[in-house]
């Protein structure tokens, strides 16, 4: 089992920045990729960014060039640096981890609100 705990959400003005963190514990050897997803009110959960153990990243078009995903060298944490935030980035952000056997784990989510 893998446990994921997010932190770093909050309220920020448009154009501002936030950095989300996700700490993984438990059977972390099973993880081969991690990522961030978000869910806005009334919308489906959507991919934001992912990063593999090899460091390959993938971004949603809506955040490309504004958000950066990274992992620490021990691969037990993943981060999401969010710059130039827009009101449409408001959502609950969820940390995700996946295994080679297509098992998926989720964190509890952290609220990000972009508003003046």
Class computed from helices, strands and strand pairing: mainly beta
Distance between the termini: 40 Å
Low-pLDDT windows of residues: none
Task: Name the helix and strand elements from N-terminus to C-terminus, one letter apiece.
Answer: EEEEEEEEEEE
The major beta sheet can be summarized as:
7 strands, mixed
The tally of helices reads: 0
Instruction: Provide the gyration radius in Å.
Output: 13 Å
The fraction of residues assigned to DSSP E strands is over 45%
So what's the overall shape? Answer: globular
Helicity range: under 10%
- Compute the number of strand runs: 11
pLDDT averaged over residues: 95
Provide structural commentary.
This protein is mainly β and 116 residues long. Helix content is 0%, strand content 56%. The protein has no helices and eleven strands. The chain has strands at 2-7, 10-12, 18-26, 31-39, 46-52, 57-59, 67-71, 77-82, 91-99, 104-106, 110-114. Strands 2, 4, 5, 6, 9, 10 and 11 form a seven-stranded mixed β-sheet that branches. A hairpin with a 5-residue loop joins β7 and β8 (77-82). The N and C termini lie far apart (40 Å). The mean pLDDT is 95.
């Amino acid at each position: 089992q893998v446990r994921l705990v997010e932190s770093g959400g909050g309220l920020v003005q448009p154009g501002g920045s936030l950095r989300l963190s996700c700490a993984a514990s438990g059977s972390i050897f099973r993880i081969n990729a991690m990522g961030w997803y978000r869910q806005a009110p009334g919308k489906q959960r959507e991919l934001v960014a992912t990063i593999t153990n090899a460091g390959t990243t993938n971004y949603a078009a809506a955040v490309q060039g504004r958000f950066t995903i990274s992992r620490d060298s021990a691969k037990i944490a993943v981060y999401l640096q969010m710059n130039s935030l827009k009101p449409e980035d408001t959502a609950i952000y969820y940390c995700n981890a996946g295994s080679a056997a297509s098992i998926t784990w989720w964190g509890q989510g952290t609220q990000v609100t972009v508003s003046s």
